[in-house]
Design goal:
single chain, alpha/beta, 14 helices, Primosomal protein DnaI, 311 residues, IstB_ATP-bd, two-stranded antiparallel sheet, P-loop_NTPase
Length: 311
């Protein structure tokens, strides 16, 4: 939309009978219901006062208020996209101000929320997950839903220091649960990071080439809420298990930072999986240390039901 003053000057230039058209425009402005309401509240305004502010009143009249004439934020018709005009009166001076419309506020809130949910190779639909998307009809999921709701409700208490460990078969929605919790936390202003475990392993290995490994590990250690998705799906080296995963979990355990997990294994099965390195070595004691940290950091929650990916 071109500036109001430019369009008005163009209008003046193109109309030969300026006075007639000016009077007609003035009449239309003053008959606008919202302008009429303003003038009725301020009977002290003289004709000179009104004419002095006619351009501002025209600008106010010609724009959409409260999104009434805008199909969407992207197609906002106002001079300032996403802002709605308001008139303020100071003595006999009329001022035009702009405030964010409801769509602009919602869009800003959504963008702010997205900055609070960081991810490492997670699909978009998971990052947009919500509690409303839970399948409440499947009785096998009720316990997991209750635990997720109870956790979010416990924010601000000592109970919230311990995350959840969702385990169950492939495709039942474990990752979706993590995404939904992350978004609920974002609504409360709490930052989280959701990381897909197999890609996380590859990310750490590649960071050895550019010496960014310590910086990345420090980030994983200190993020307010960390979520490991699909732990156990990867084959870990003893070095990664003990020096990387172990150090992250140890730090978060000591600092009481909430940590979540999803896995096809229950905790006992995961411990057995971790005991065997990608070289075939078996180290029960070291795997047990990792398992104990996971148990300390999270509550085991079974998640079963139909395979959502077959739908």
């Amino acid at each position: 939309m071109e500036p109001i003053q430019s369009s008005l000057k163009k209008w003046m230039k193109e109309n030969k009978n300026f006075q007639v058209n000016y009077n007609q425009l003035r009449h239309e402005i003053l008959m606008d219901p919202e302008v009429r309401e303003l003038l009725d509240k301020h009977p002290e305004f003289t004709k000179s006062d009104i004419d002095k502010s006619l351009m501002k009143l025209y600008e106010f009249k010609s724009q959409s208020k409260h999104c009434e004439n805008c199909p969407s934020l992207d197609k906002c018709v106002n001079i300032l996209q996403g802002y709605t005009p308001f008139i303020q009166v100071d003595g006999k001076d009329i001022h035009l101000t702009y405030e964010k419309c409801k769509r602009k506020r919602k869009d800003d809130e959504q963008k702010q929320k997205q900055t609070l949910v960081k991810s490492l190779y997670m699909p978009k639909d998971i990052l947009e997950a919500s509690f409303e998307g839970f399948d409440h009809q499947d009785a096998e999921r009720h316990d997991a839903i209750r635990e997720a709701l109870a956790y979010v409700q416990s924010i601000g208490t000592s109970r919230a220091e311990k995350g959840l460990y969702f385990y169950g078969p492939f495709g039942v929605g474990k990752t979706y649960f993590l995404g939904a919790i992350a978004n609920e936390l974002a609504d409360k202003g709490i930052s989280s990071m959701v990381i897909y475990m197999p890609e996380f392993v590859r990310e750490i290995k590649s960071s050895l080439k550019d010496d960014s490994i310590n910086q990345k590990i420090d980030q994983f250690k200190k993020v307010p809420v960390l979520m490991f998705d699909d732990i156990g799906a990867e084959s870990l080296s003893a070095w990664f298990r003990d020096e990387i995963l172990g150090s992250i979990l140890q730090y978060r355990m000591m600092e009481r930072l909430p940590t979540f997990f999803s896995s096809n294994y229950n905790m006992k099965q995961l411990e057995q999986h971790l005991a065997t390195s990608n070289r075939g070595d078996t180290e029960v004691v070291k795997a047990g240390r990792i398992a104990e940290r996971i148990k300390h950091l999270s509550k085991e929650v079974p998640l079963f039901g139909h395979n959502r990916r077959d739908m």
